[in-house]
């Protein structure tokens, strides 16, 4: 009885997530078919708090034919465990630097949740000193072993790790701005959840773009564009904006020293990787918010809605009409975002 129930829940959740008709941002799109092309996905940091549930969710994705799970330790166990799930992909674990090349070779999408998470009282930028080096070395290997893969950067501070990756790829001569993504999907997931709760609308129907970056005030949810429309008072919009900006900190404090968001991040990471795979496979109208190279503002990287296609970014979409409150938020976030981007670029070029 319990097994039958569990099976039905898993069947429903995997088909919701993977054959879904809506993205995290909410755009309708096609179903995975039995004849989906071969696609290899590598997860770097796969034995971690995000890595493990993300490995599980990618194993449930019928668009994946090979799943490479890489970490500096612990991946044989995670890979053995996940590999017993009776879905399409073949799962292989790789451990230690000497196996990184094999993990990456042939990858279509590389997801990077490798690096340390925050503890209470820390900002994402406090992770820079450790995570910048990790990201730099992983991206050096990506440039060597799978230079054409789409890179989904989860490691914080995203506002700096994405610029680091771009510089590493430029130095290696492999940079393609269409293929590098900072994963900001969790901000969209949170904005949708919080908005639905406040507006008392069905969360499954909610769309909210979130633009800017992925840290504090650089996270700018555009509730004026949220649908279904709810005409919430200004104080509710301000409270929703603040809660979305502080969503990561809310989890860090609740976990009280045991790390940051892992399960909701794995969900968000799986949604974004699924969108990348659908784009690669030629599914039309796949749109997600992501932190990418951009000319939407004067900043070289910026998160906004992005249309995904066979080569990665097909189109970086503009911001659309903003409320006065959002216009103020946009101006206020630029100095911090600019300095985080510059910090990443400087690090990549001096070390
Ligand atoms: N973008 C987002 O929205 C978002 C959300 C949540 C967390 N994060 C970030 O994701 C990162 C990981 O968080 P977590 O909770 O999974 O941390 P974690 O400590 O639980 O796991 C990190 C994993 O990375 C591995 N790792 C370390 N160095 C590595 C290397 N050189 N190569 C491969 N793997 C390596 C560790 O062994 C560990 O298994 C953090 O930087 C965190 O801030 C980002
Ligand atoms: O808040 C963090 O440090 C992790 C992540 O960026 C999040 O938004 O949950």
TrEMBL record:
GO BP field: malate metabolic process; tricarboxylic acid cycle
GO molecular function: L-malate dehydrogenase (NAD+) activity
InterPro entries reported for this sequence: L-lactate/malate_DH, Lactate/malate_DH_C, Lactate/malate_DH_N, Lactate_DH/Glyco_Ohase_4_C, Malate_DH_AS, Malate_DH_type1, NAD(P)-bd_dom_sf
EC number of the protein: 1.1.1.37
UniProt KW keywords: Mitochondrion, NAD, Oxidoreductase, Transit peptide, Tricarboxylic acid cycle
One term under GO cellular component: mitochondrial matrix
Domain Lactate/malate dehydrogenase C-terminal: 184-347
Keyword tRNA processing: no
Domain of life: Eukaryota
Reactions catalysed according to its record: (S)-malate + NAD(+) = oxaloacetate + NADH + H(+)
Binding-site list for substrate: 118, 124, 156, 190
Residues annotated as catalytic: 214 (proton acceptor)
Oxidoreductase found in the keyword field: yes
Assembly information from the UniProt record: Homodimer.
Family: Belongs to the LDH/MDH superfamily. MDH type 1 family.
Name of the protein described by the UniProt record: Malate dehydrogenase
Species of the source: Coffea canephora
